[in-house]
Amino acid sequence: MPSVGTAAVALFLLVIASTAGAQLSHKYYSTTCPGLQPLVRRIIDQALSQDPTLGAALLRLFFHDCFVNGCDASVLLDDTATFAGEKNAAPNMNSLRGFQVIDAIKSSVEAKCRQTVSCADILALAARDSVAALGGPYWAVYLGRRDSRTASQREAVANLPPPGASLSTMVSSFGAKGLAAWDTIALSGAHTIGQARCANFRQHIYNDTDVDPGFAGVRQLACPASGGDSITAPLDVQTPMVFDNDYYRNLVARKGLLHSDQQLFNGGQYDYLVSLYSTNQTAFFDDFATAMVKMGDMSPLTGSVGEIRTNCRRWN
Ligand code: HEM
Ligand SMILES: *[C@@H]1O[C@H](CO)[C@@H](O)[C@H](O)[C@H]1NC(C)=O
Ligand SMILES: *[C@@H]1O[C@H](CO)[C@@H](O)[C@H](O)[C@H]1NC(C)=O
């Protein structure tokens, strides 16, 4: 009977899905690499004390890893003569930063626990510790991901939404990853830290109508209508180095830097969530932490799939 077959397949898939998730654990390295988490935190704190902008870079690396074939450190693979990785995909090229911090963590971790801790897990810890170090929420990170032996430039382009994206495009691209609309709104709050390049917000500050004119004028001073593509501006006009809820306060004031940012508060269906987060930082922090855990659980490689890289920039 087709219906029985369908039900059996559905059950089978459900079992696979829940087993995959269940293999990640907070205590994954507690016997094989005790002291891992304080070690990562120490290196993050050192790196951020020299350059606090690295926190944003490391948070974004995790997002760009997870959205492309799952959280498998594919984003960290360097291109070679015969292999085009994700680093030079349009959303990443001349934009992703912080790889040297991941390298520093990896070499300290290798010295302590040889070929035990994956680069994918290091990315998850580095993102969490960066957020916490800049004043944001803290959450327990599930661990046990393994590293890919490949990457996909094409998938990076296809899966990472561009700054001109509409609200419905973003909600459906996050939906395709198993994330709900409210996860999309909460995760976008990552733009409370970090920078964007003029090329990515020019259209918005010159041509969109949902922008505060004073804010657009100030941004135009450092982002000419043509040229100056790589000049940067803070995604959060108020406190770009602090993880807080100012991002949402900006959106309510029509001071979102990217077209995609302002889409979240533009008379649409989720304005109420932006309003909520703009007045209740605790609600934002709780939902952000929950959504980060969910994002981190996206199709991890577990068991004997993939490998533990010794150098995050190349497969073994
Ligand atoms: C919702 C869809 C999203 C879009 C369209 C988007 C787009 C962008 C763009 C265009 C930039 C600037 C890049 C540049 O100009 O070089 C950027 C920066 C950034 N994004 Fe997103 N992003 C999105 C979601 C996220 C998520 C979910 C996270 C993390 C959870 C995140 C974290 C960041 C951070 C931290 C920066 C600053 C990076 C730095 O200063 O180095 N973004 N994003
Ligand atoms: C604004 O829109 C006009 C008309 O579509 C276009 O010609 C112009 O290049 C746009 N300006 C910027 C800075 O994007
Ligand atoms: C803010 O959100 C938190 C978490 O959802 C909630 O417990 C609290 O009651 C909210 N505070 C206010 C003032 O609404």
Content-based structural category: mainly alpha
Strand residue percentage = under 5%
Radius of gyration: 20 Å
- The chain-level mean pLDDT equals 94
Distance, first to last CA: 47 Å
Helical stretch tally: 14
| Biggest sheet overview | 2 strands, antiparallel
Into which percent range does the helicity of residues fall?
40-55%
Poorly predicted ranges (pLDDT <50, ≥5 residues)?
A: 1-22
Bound molecules: protoporphyrin IX containing FE, 2-acetamido-2-deoxy-beta-D-glucopyranose
Largest beta sheet: strand ordering: 1-2
Number of strands: 2
SSE order, as H and E?
A: HHHHHHHHEHHEHHHH
Coarse shape: globular
Explain the overall architecture.
- With 316 residues, this protein is mainly α.
- The protein is built from 14 helices and 2 strands; from the N terminus they run ααααααααβααβαααα.
- The chain has a two-stranded antiparallel sheet with strand order 1-2.
- The N terminus is likely disordered.
- The chain binds protoporphyrin IX containing FE and 2-acetamido-2-deoxy-beta-D-glucopyranose (2 copies).
- The site of one 2-acetamido-2-deoxy-beta-D-glucopyranose has 5 residues, from α9.
Characteristic terms for this protein:
single chain; 316 residues; mainly alpha; 14 helices; 50% helix; 2% strand; disordered N terminus; binds protoporphyrin IX containing FE; binds 2-acetamido-2-deoxy-beta-D-glucopyranose
